[in-house]
Write a structure and sequence with these properties.
about 425 residues, eight-stranded mixed sheet, 7 helices, about 35% helix, alpha+beta, five-stranded antiparallel sheet, single chain, 15 strands
C-alpha cells in the first residue's frame, strides 16, 4: 500500500466521522426544537391570554367569591437619564421594569418534555397591565419576550422609556433638585386579583448599569407600597412608588455664574473708594449694573422660578441703582458755588459739625475773614471806618470748600449705610439656605 492510498483511507475515515457527529448534533437540535414546539402548542392549546391566572381561595365557601390574587414582583433598574426639562419639570429616562409572577396554567414536567426553559412572545400569554400612573411609558423593542419555567414562573424585563413630571426645588440653584416618583400599578385589577410587591436589589432602585448623566446625578432612592381606595370603586388597588432624587452637578454654573456674579456684586463696595470728583465712579457703577442685568438674564434662561441667586441679583441691582442716584446727588453738591447755591446754616451744623466727627472727617481750615475798610475817595485826609459796613462775608473759595466737604460727608455716610444694608440683606437672603442645609 503506497502513501497515496493510505492518505485516501485516512481522509475518508475522518470525513465519515465528521458527518456522523454533525448528523447526531443536527438530530439532537431538531429533537429539541420539536419538543419546544410541541410544548408550546400544548401550553397554549386551551390558554386564554385575557384571563387573569387567579384561583379560588381554598378556605372560601362555595358561595363566596374570594380568590388568591396573582402576586407580581417588580423591580426598577435605571439605565439612563435621557433629558431633564427644568422649565416644566419633565424628565425622560430609560428604565428596565422587571416583572416576575406565577401562572399555574403554564406548568409542565421537564423530565418528560426534555425542556427546562421556554422563551415565548409576551403577546401570547397573560401579563400584568402595569401602568405608570403619573406619566407615560414607551417600549423600545417591537415585541417583548418572556421566559417560562417548568413550575409556571414567568419572568419578563422590558426596556421602556418613561416620561413623567417631577417636583422641582430650584430655590438653591445651582444645587437644585428633581424629585421623580415612578408610581406603578394595575389599571384594571384590584388587590383581590393582582398584588404587587417590590424586588429587593439591596437598594430601592438598581443602579448597577446606570449611565451617569453629565449634569444630574442620583442623590437618593426609595420605594414604598401602598393600597389605595378610590371613590369610584369599593375595592383597593395596589401600587408601588419608586422615588429617585436627582441633584444638579453645580461646578459648571458655579464657575460661570454664581462666583462671577458674587464677585461683581461685592465690587460695589469699591465704588465708594473712588473720590467723588472722579468720573470713573459713575462709570464703575453703571458697568456693574450692566453685568448684574446680564447675569440675571442668564439665570432666567436656566431656571423658571425664584431662586436664592435671583433674589441676591435683584437685591444687588437695587443697591447699585441707589448708588448711582447717590453719586449723582454727590456730584451735584460737590460742584455747587455760592452764586447759585448759598450754603444754609443747618447744612453747616448737621454735616460739618455733627456728622463729620463720627465719620472720621476733619473740617477744612477756617480762614480769617479780612476786615475791609471803606476809604472815602472824596476826602484824602479823613479816614472813616465804616463799622456797620464791615465785610464779614466768607470768601467764595471758602464757601466752595464747604460744599465739597458736605459732599464728602454725604458720600462717607452713604458708604456706611450701604455696607450695613448690604451685610444685613445678604445674611437675611442666605439665612434660609444655611438653615436648610
Amino acid at each position: 500500500m503506497n502513501i497515496f492510498e493510505l492518505t485516501t483511507i485516512v481522509c475518508t475515515f475522518h470525513l465519515c466521522f465528521v458527518i456522523g457527529v454533525n448528523g447526531d448534533v443536527a438530530s439532537n437540535e431538531n429533537e429539541r426544537i420539536h419538543a419546544q414546539m410541541e410544548l408550546y402548542n400544548d401550553l397554549l392549546k386551551d390558554y386564554h391570554k385575557y384571563v387573569s391566572p387567579v384561583r379560588p381561595h381554598p378556605n372560601a365557601s362555595s358561595s363566596a367569591t374570594a380568590t388568591v390574587p396573582t402576586t407580581v414582583e417588580i423591580g426598577l433598574s435605571l439605565q439612563q437619564l435621557i433629558s431633564a426639562d427644568t422649565e416644566y419639570g419633565e424628565v425622560k429616562a430609560r428604565i428596565w421594569l422587571s416583572q416576575y409572577w406565577t401562572d399555574h396554567r403554564l406548568v409542565w414536567d421537564p423530565s418528560t418534555t426534555k425542556v427546562d426553559l421556554l422563551h415565548i412572545s409576551a403577546s401570547e400569554i397573560w401579563k400584568p397591565d402595569l401602568t405608570l400612573y403619573n406619566g407615560r411609558l414607551e417600549t423600545e423593542e417591537p415585541e417583548r419576550f418572556a421566559i417560562l419555567h417548568p413550575d409556571g414562573h414567568v419572568y419578563m424585563i422590558p426596556s421602556l422609556i418613561a416620561t413623567l413630571s417631577c417636583e422641582r426645588e430650584e430655590k438653591h440653584f445651582p444645587h437644585d433638585r428633581l424629585s421623580c416618583k415612578f408610581r406603578f400599578g394595575s389599571w384594571v385589577y384590584h388587590s383581590g386579583y393582582l398584588d404587587v410587591i417590590t424586588k429587593q436589589y439591596g437598594a430601592a432602585v438598581d443602579l448597577s448599569s446606570y449611565i451617569q448623566h453629565p449634569e444630574w446625578y442620583v442623590h437618593v432612592t426609595s420605594v414604598k407600597r401602598t393600597e389605595t381606595k378610590y371613590e369610584c370603586c369599593p375595592e383597593r388597588y395596589v401600587d408601588v412608588e419608586y422615588m429617585i432624587e436627582f441633584v444638579r452637578e453645580p461646578s459648571l454654573y458655579t464657575a460661570t455664574m454664581s462666583t462671577p456674579a458674587s464677585l461683581i456684586a461685592m465690587a460695589m463696595v469699591f465704588i465708594f473708594v473712588i473720590p467723588p470728583t472722579s468720573r470713573e465712579k459713575m462709570n464703575l457703577a453703571v458697568g456693574i449694573l450692566i453685568c448684574l442685568v446680564i447675569f440675571a438674564a442668564m439665570l432666567l434662561s436656566v431656571t423658571s422660578s425664584a431662586t436664592t441667586m435671583s433674589t441676591l441679583l435683584l437685591f444687588a441691582i437695587i443697591l447699585d441703582l441707589m448708588i448711582i442716584a447717590e453719586t449723582s446727588i454727590v456730584y451735584n453738591i460737590y460742584f455747587r458755588t455760592i452764586r447759585t447755591h448759598p450754603i444754609p446754616d443747618w447744612v453747616r451744623t448737621v454735616f460739618m459739625d455733627v456728622l463729620s466727627r463720627p465719620l472720621c472727617l476733619s473740617k477744612p481750615n477756617q480762614r480769617r475773614y479780612e476786615m475791609e475798610l471803606n476809604y472815602a475817595e472824596s476826602n484824602e485826609d479823613t479816614r472813616v471806618v465804616a463799622g456797620d459796613q464791615l465785610d464779614r462775608t466768607p470768601k467764595l473759595e471758602d464757601v466752595g470748600e464747604e460744599w465739597r466737604f458736605v459732599a464728602r460727608v454725604i458720600d462717607r455716610l452713604c458708604f456706611w449705610i450701604f455696607l450695613v444694608v448690604f451685610i444685613i440683606g445678604v445674611c437675611s437672603i442666605l439665612a434660609p439656605t444655611s438653615e436648610k442645609d
